[in-house]
Amino acid sequence: MSSYKIHYFAAPARAEVARLCLSIGGIAYEDINYTQATFPEAKPRMPFGQVPVLELPDGRMLAQSGAIDRYVAKLAGLYPADPLDAAYADQLVFQLADFMELFTPTWALPMEERIKARQEILAGKGKEKLQQLEKLVEAQSGGYVAGVKLSFADLALFVGLSNMSGGLYDGVPKNLLDEYPALKAFRNKIANEPAVKAHYEKHGDVLRASFKPDA
Ligand SMILES: N[C@@H](CCC(=O)N[C@@H](CS)C(=O)NCC(=O)O)C(=O)O
């Protein structure tokens, strides 16, 4: 029987939350990973010419990572049932997107300028956003960012922090989280969730070295 397919690149980036949700939910899926060389052939089959795209077992295609993540989180029981918890989960995910978005223009810069621009972000607007996230995490008595159980928002924060401190962003130090002890402890806590840990024991390639506990 055909399963869900995630069309993306090998990198964690915008597809990783969906992969984790499916894995944690015990829902079979297959990764269809493109390279810069193979993507142009597939591009016209994607609803908006971009990936990630979730291919449903019946062949329908769902685009936009925000829509995919929420859909698979619901399938996996990782989208809060309580409307207010769900809103807090979304709040975190949108705020994290604002933080990540600060770095988007830096990809187009030559390496030296890119590194400088990222250092400036981490000393300015980015620092402000990380401090806000640090406070938010510190204030959670239940240990999760929305409600008292693991949700896709925890996974999104875990993925964002692991990505950022993984050495893949030139100009972002691998010890970035030393400045943010609550975020560092949170990242390690989610990395130690049994289902998350089990996922990275299976999918622990070099791009995901920083997704492991105590990385
Ligand atoms: N808002 C979209 C953005 C998707 C996006 O920017 N995808 C990039 C990869 S991360 C892509 O498909 N690039 C290739 C292209 O545009 O041809 C989402 O979150 O899914």
UniProtKB/TrEMBL annotation:
<dbReference type="Pfam" id="PF02798">
    <property type="entry name" value="GST_N"/>
</dbReference>
<dbReference type="InterPro" id="IPR050213">
    <property type="entry name" value="GST_superfamily"/>
</dbReference>
<dbReference type="GO" id="GO:0006749">
    <property type="term" value="P:glutathione metabolic process"/>
</dbReference>
<dbReference type="Pfam" id="PF14497">
    <property type="entry name" value="GST_C_3"/>
</dbReference>
<dbReference type="InterPro" id="IPR004045">
    <property type="entry name" value="Glutathione_S-Trfase_N"/>
</dbReference>
<dbReference type="InterPro" id="IPR010987">
    <property type="entry name" value="Glutathione-S-Trfase_C-like"/>
</dbReference>
<dbReference type="InterPro" id="IPR036249">
    <property type="entry name" value="Thioredoxin-like_sf"/>
</dbReference>
<feature type="domain" description="GST N-terminal">
    <location>
        <begin position="2"/>
        <end position="80"/>
    </location>
</feature>
<dbReference type="InterPro" id="IPR040079">
    <property type="entry name" value="Glutathione_S-Trfase"/>
</dbReference>
<protein>
    <recommendedName>
        <fullName>Glutathione S-transferase</fullName>
    </recommendedName>
</protein>
<dbReference type="InterPro" id="IPR036282">
    <property type="entry name" value="Glutathione-S-Trfase_C_sf"/>
</dbReference>
<feature type="domain" description="GST C-terminal">
    <location>
        <begin position="82"/>
        <end position="215"/>
    </location>
</feature>
<dbReference type="InterPro" id="IPR004046">
    <property type="entry name" value="GST_C"/>
</dbReference>
<dbReference type="GO" id="GO:0004364">
    <property type="term" value="F:glutathione transferase activity"/>
</dbReference>
